[in-house]
Amino acid sequence: MKASFSTETHTPDSLIAGNAHLLVARKVTIDAGVLPRGAVLGKITSGGKYILSLQAADDGSQTPDAILAEPVDASGGDVVALAYFRGDFNTNALTIGTGHTAASITEGLRAKGITLITAQAA
């Protein structure tokens, strides 16, 4: 039996802004949309699925609750994905839904254990 190897190029992003050992992630169901890693998610009260949090929503998802840990394409139906529920994250690497700003979501996420940090360029 011959061993085979493959290589991939890993390009780290700047989403994680603190100690990785503080991260807490769990599986969530994404209801709809094509979302990038770092999307700020809100939980739909009825059913408990997650979507991009939009300030004008009225289904519970208007309240930011988690940060998507991986890119997701739920355009064809529900997708199970990982989302962060605790940790330190770079504000500049987030995808924030319409109507929200970093300032408007910071305190609410902090109460949930998510700290937003604006990374400074070197």
TrEMBL record:
It comes from the Bacteria. It holds the Pfam family HDPD. This is Head decoration protein.
